[in-house]
Amino acid sequence: MMMFQRAKRLMAVAILVSACAPAISNSIESPVLTPTLSPSQQVEQATSTPIATKEASVAPTVAVPASLQPLIDTAIADLSERLSIDATQITVVGFSAEVWPDASLGCPEPGVQYAQVLTEGYRIQLKVSDRVYDYHGGGTRGPFLCEE
Predict the structure, then answer these.
(1) Is residue 78 part of a domain?
(2) Does an H or E element contain 63, and which?
(3) What's the domain count of the chain?
(4) Can you give the pTM of this predicted structure?
(5) Is residue 93 a contact partner of residue 101, using CB atoms and an 8 Å limit?
């Protein structure tokens, strides 16, 4: 019985103390967080700028966010080296944010097993003469030529 009365007194003191405590001020500033955006979010939210590669002097045909320009540059450099041509002969004809159905990034290799998880990424389409080359990327993997 004595413990019950002691508990009642402690509870009463706690209520009185909390009622008399000063109100919490909203003057505490929250830190500003800069989110890391996925490629698909960058495509949706960023202001598009025309593609202009360092090497190429061709007129851009597609607009992509400036933050994604390094991906385009990497794909152009790779295709230029593969075909042994000047980068000015390569035209960007497409760029899209993708959600790949698995870790193969839309370009599975026969006999290879991939994690079955949705993976955010992108597709870059480059044109040389009359042929279009698809580059895929996403997750931690940069752009690579998808030869289906």
Answers:
(1) yes
(2) strand 63-65
(3) 1
(4) 0.60
(5) no
